[in-house]
Amino acid sequence: MTLTRKSPLMKACLNVARRLSLIAILAFAACAATTARADESPADVLQERAKEAAAKVAAIAAAAAPVDVAAQPSTTPAVVAAPVAPTLALPAKSPGSLPHELSPWGMFLSADIVVKAVMSLLALASLATWTIWIAKTFELSAAIRRVRRDRAALAEERSLSAAAARFQSKSGVVAGLIANALTELKLSSDITSREGIKERVESRLSTGEALAQRLMKRGTGVLASVGATSPFIGLFGTVWGIMNSFIGISRSQTTNLAVVAPGIAEALLATALGLVAAIPAVLMFNQLTRAIASYRAEVHDASGEIARLVSRDLDRAGNAPHNVRPVRAAE
Q1: 2/68 Cα distance (integer angstroms)
Q2: Which of 42, 84, 164, 315 could, after both became Cys, cross-link 330 (CB 3.0–4.6 A)?
Q3: 256: phi then psi, degrees, rounded to nearest 5
Q4: Which of 124, 51, 148 is nearest to 274 (CA)?
């Protein structure tokens, strides 16, 4: 019988030898532990004895297997060391690499120079809009009240000469209309056509109304311009900011939101400022347009009162316009 082909008796002897060796090892380890506890030996002595026991176990295992054990199936399960998963060490972010504060002021300070210029321009446009609206609102309110008061005074007068004497020391739209009517009567003093005089007086009064309306409309064109162009100016800043954001993405080779979000937020802030400047400007322009229309209606009513006074004087004069004597101080 060769060593490679084992008989059942040889196999049984080998198994018994292995078991006896394991029992001996366990008994030796138990004795060593008992002795260590009894003698209260230090930890280094116990560690040395454990090393000696491990060496004896290795010697017994080598002596118990003189034959080819590789072909013999093992009765004890092999213990395979589990692979240790590699840990991914994330680089610690320095305070300078963290995203900046995403507040409106922080985004303005960190924006590109072009986007910053667009935001500043929109802020100035919004400030100019509110300034003009407040000033024109007070101006229109005072002008409407004054024209209404002067029109009520004109309604009480019986002739243009009496009205001119009453408004001699006053200034304003109504006083200017009276002066225009007196000027036309003076220039037409040698003309006998009453209808022609009325037409020329009404023409001068219409010219005075248009002049008063143009003076009152000064500044409202800024509101119209701001309301019409601010969204597009803000859109230009947005396009420029998003373009810079994409350039930053290509340079950093990442699409992380911490890199992309600040630039896009700055770009959208320009659009928001454009809307903030445009929406109030449109509303204010419409409100001022209605107020100016109301003012012109009041001026037109005052002009009608003056035209009636002129017609009344012409009828009294009996087709003799040279008898209507204007007041020199009112010219």
Answers
A1: 11
A2: 164
A3: -65, 140
A4: 124
